[in-house]
Queue: 3 jobs
Job 1
Amino acid sequence: MMEPVFHERQRLELCAVHALNNLLQKPEITQQRAEEICRGLSPNTMINPHRSLLGTGNYDVNVIMVALQTLDYAAVWWDKRKSLESLVLSEIFGFILNIPSPISLGFLSLPITRKHWITVRQINGVYYNLDSKLKAPAKLGGPTELKQFLQDCISRGSCEVLLVVRKDVEEARLWINAEERAS
């Protein structure tokens, strides 16, 4: 029997926390842990630049990277000029994307966007979009559908892609094919 897909839903501005937990497929990172990371990144500051002023989340990439490092993972910035065909998917644990997200007030969509963290991960042989703003995980399919989804996000502009890999995979650059590693 297949395990159900873990999917944390959006609360406050905690999309970075939700993205990490959806990646890990369990509630590993709490808002309190994210706040501790923020304090560690900027000790002795009145206003922490790694989160929202209101303390409701909106954590930046540094918080995500430190959280992953404490769990023996690394985040590798994807160079969007490269072909997604050069990725070695079997070595990539998952993807965290920072995408533009429309702001709405109830049913009213505003003409502005904010950045939003989402996770894409393979579970039981299928890639899922685990965006915390979705009501449920969205099944993408196999490697072809994953690459199409990533390309669609990248081509819309203002999107960053982090490859999440084990630390040893990062050090040996095993997440990219041998031809690219050699260059």
Job 2
Amino acid sequence: MTTIGRLTTHVLDTANGTPARGMTIDLYRVDDGGAVLEKSVVTNDDGRCDGPLLEGDAVIEGAYRLGFHVGKYFSEINGKGVEFLDVVSVDFRVSDSGAHYHVPLLVSPFGYSTYRGS
């Protein structure tokens, strides 16, 4: 069986115990010249993207950054301004273009955690 490389993510709102619906996520490719925006998406009702951020030939080995707009998300659902976190940036490296990279974010207005999921 041949595997097709892909990059996926999802966001869980740990402050409210729900998926983070409606959060903007920016995907950047990073190299010596800086970060280049590849794609911007908004999470669905399940806190996921409607499809992979990258898939197949679009998955290229190298450095990437996901920018999760958590400040805007919490401002909209809590009716307050940004309290602490604004954009959470997760920098990571793809070392196998044929693998599945899943980068979830668990977030509250004041802290976050991430890991390589499956």
Job 3
Amino acid sequence: MMKGIITLILLCHAATAVKYFLELDDLLWSGSPNVPEYAVTGTVEGVLVFYIDIMDKTAKVTHDWIRELIKEHTEQWEALQEECLDYRHVLKHDTDSFNQDSGQTEGAPVIQKIHGCEWDNETNEVNGYVRYGNNGEDFILFDLDTTTWITLDAQAVAIKKEWDADEARNVDWKHYLTTECVMWLKIFLTYGKSYLTRKDLPSVSLLQRTPSSPVTCHATGFYPESAMIFWRRDGEEIHEGVDLGNILPNHDGSFQMSVDLEVPSISPEDWRRYDCVFQLSGVQNDIVTELKKEAIKTNFRKKDTLSVVSIAVIATMAVVIVIIAAALGSIAIKKKNDRDILERSSTPPSDTISL
């Protein structure tokens, strides 16, 4: 059963480039006829690597190094696809348990399971996890050390008792996470090493919506995910008036992130004291961008100037139209006296995902 849970996702986490992750994310949902009931996604460093659902039944891959792996491990890959699809039966069983024990009686639940293993290629240390979610909320987590389950939701207590009692299943989970999962992780590292260890520097820009808005230091196109971005004043990192955003994936497998600086309180002569710093793990030189008005990209000036002119013109025209209409109306009334040419008409006017 555990073989059916493999989805190949590598995440080179963190400042320690010797730790690698393989992770699976599969989803079960029967709430819409236009969405596959069951799907599995695989990512590498946050990049979509393959996707498979119950309708197509054939994994779609996005990188040449995955295709090379498939050529040399065709039988294993085909077996993997079948096992991934077959696992939906286990998730359906879990769905029944979740419904029964969590008290949910209406609507189609969304069941998500994420599992993964970690391997340190220097210490050979192995770790792993299994986490279930119910309707977007963390529900229950497998503890590899004790081979028992930890409740993440009060409604998961009954399920914990049931799953803790299934010792054979828990032993299977531990074996999979520490043996089979790590085996696949090492295979993927072999084929994807050049991709996973590359260092791509980003383009960094200063952005601002309006003169009173924060200045955003935006870095995009960097790889891997382990990076930092921050504002400095006189060479020292600052936190006051700074808002750091999350690291987000780009469609091409790279990443982006940004950090805002509140500038209205900064005097113009002090702008030269500030700069934005981007640091990428494994790269010695930082990317430093000075805070300069001429370096800021914005469409405010052009857009707002046009807007102000337009508003002024429209306002002037409106006043003129009102005056003309009033004058014409007065003349018409005087000329036509009490005729019904000013009667009101009663006829009304006619009348763009993911995995």
